[in-house]
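Task: sequence design from structure.
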C-alpha cells in the first residue's frame, strides 16, 4: 500500500555530493583569501621599507644641499660603513667653537644588522659636530629611519665635489638599493 505522490526532498547521495562540492569551493575561497592577505602584508611591508629609505635619502640630500659651502661638510667613514655626516652651520666663523657647531647625521648599526639614522643638533653651548657619539643623547632622539645600510662616498667631477649616496633596504631576500648623487655648487679651490 505504498503510494508515491511525487518526489520531494533529496537522496542521501545527492546531499553528500552537494556537501563535497561546497567544501571544495570553500577551501578554494579560503586559499584565495589567505594568499590575498599574505600579498597585502608583503605590499605594506614593501611600502614601509620604501618610505623609510626615501625619508633617509631625503634627509641626507637636503642636508648636503643646505650646507653647500667649502668646509661645511665632513664625511666620516669607518671601513665600508658610513658613520656620520658632519654639517657645520658656519664654517667661516671667526671662533673655532662657532665653526664646529651644526648638525650631525649619525648612522648606527644595531645588533640586528640594521642601520638606524639620527639627526642630532649640535648648536648648543659647548657642543660640537666633532663630539664623540657617547655624549650625544641618542636615547632622547627619535630615529629618522631604519634601513639595511648607508654608504656615502665623495668624488671630484669637473672641479665639483659629488656625494654618492647608496641606501640598501628591505628584508627577506627582497633587498633593494636606492642611489643618488649630489653635486655641490661651490667649486673646489684650485691648487
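Answer:
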Amino acid at each position: 500500500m505504498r503510494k508515491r505522490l511525487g518526489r520531494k526532498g533529496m537522496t542521501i547521495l545527492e546531499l553528500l555530493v552537494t556537501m563535497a562540492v561546497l567544501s571544495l569551493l570553500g577551501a578554494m575561497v579560503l586559499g584565495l583569501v589567505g594568499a590575498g592577505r599574505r600579498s597585502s602584508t608583503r605590499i605594506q611591508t614593501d611600502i614601509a621599507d620604501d618610505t623609510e629609505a626615501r625619508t633617509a635619502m631625503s634627509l641626507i640630500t637636503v642636508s648636503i644641499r643646505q650646507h653647500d659651502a667649502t668646509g661645511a661638510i665632513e664625511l666620516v667613514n669607518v671601513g665600508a660603513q658610513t658613520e656620520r655626516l658632519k654639517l657645520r652651520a658656519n664654517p667661516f666663523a671667526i671662533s673655532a667653537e662657532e665653526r664646529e657647531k651644526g648638525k650631525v647625521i649619525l648612522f648606527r648599526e644595531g645588533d640586528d644588522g640594521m642601520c638606524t639614522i639620527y639627526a642630532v643638533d649640535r648648536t648648543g653651548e659647548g657642543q660640537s659636530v666633532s663630539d664623540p657619539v657617547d655624549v650625544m643623547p641618542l636615547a632622547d632622539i627619535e630615529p629618522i629611519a631604519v634601513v639595511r645600510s648607508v654608504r656615502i662616498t665623495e668624488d671630484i667631477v669637473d672641479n665639483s665635489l659629488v656625494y654618492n649616496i647608496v641606501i640598501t633596504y628591505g628584508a627577506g631576500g627582497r633587498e633593494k638599493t636606492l642611489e643618488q648623487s649630489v653635486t655641490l655648487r661651490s667649486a673646489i679651490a684650485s691648487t
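The chain has two helices and eight strands.
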